[in-house]
Design a protein that fits this description.
There is one protein chain. It contains 5 helices and 5 strands. The chain has about 180 residues and is α+β, with helices and mostly antiparallel strands. The chain has one domain. A 5-stranded antiparallel β-sheet has the order 2-1-4-5-3. Helix 2 packs antiparallel against helix 4. The protein is globular, with a radius of gyration of 16 Å. The two termini are about 25 Å apart. Keywords: Signal. It comes from Neolewinella aurantiaca.
């Protein structure tokens, strides 16, 4: 199964069940989340568990696609872990090298990164890394770089600033 499809399924598993944006209204700013919507170890355990159940840490499931890069914004909405894509992954990038794919993605100053293996320990390490670096955050931008050839998953993260919300808005999952 392709990594981008696994990430899409992870979004569904983490509570992303309906579009909540009303595109008929004209909004020019991003509303802040209510107080108390801070992510913690339980949120990160839910994310890591969902990704593990969907096979992100299974090398045989990832063998179909040797390389994939996805940018996501993770946050809590009404106490449900939610994720939005930050890049339009509609174009097929199967014949590109990692350097060519990364050139298509916006450059970011990631605050932290972790290299994971295709194993249960990889999921546990992802949870620990998120807990250690992002507990108390309202939003986290993550870049997943999945490389089946190198047998590794690289995850980079940053707590987005107000300017990041404008520069890197979420990409609607469905365009009607």
């Amino acid at each position: 199964m392709k990594p981008r499809y696994l990430l899409l399924l992870a979004l569904l598993a983490c509570g992303f069940s309906a579009c909540t944006t009303d595109y008929t209204t004209n909004t020019s700013h991003i509303s802040p989340l209510p107080e108390g919507e801070l992510m913690n170890a339980a949120s990160f355990a839910e994310l890591a568990s969902g990704l593990e159940e969907l096979g992100l840490f299974d090398a045989t499931a990832m063998a179909d696609e040797p390389l994939a890069v996805e940018d996501l914004r993770i946050y809590l909405h009404e106490n449900e872990l939610t994720a939005d894509f930050l890049s339009d992954s509609g174009n097929e990038e199967t014949d590109l090298t990692l350097e060519e794919i990364m050139a298509l993605r916006p450059a970011r100053n990631w605050s932290s990164s972790v290299t994971l293996s295709y194993s249960k320990e990889g999921a546990e390490r992802l949870q620990r890394w998120l807990t250690d670096n992002f507990t108390g955050s309202t939003h986290i931008d993550l870049r997943f770089i999945v490389s089946a050839n190198k047998q590794e998953i690289i995850v980079r993260g940053i707590e987005p600033s107000a300017a990041d919300f404008e520069q890197f808005p979420e990409v609607p999952l469905f365009n009607f």
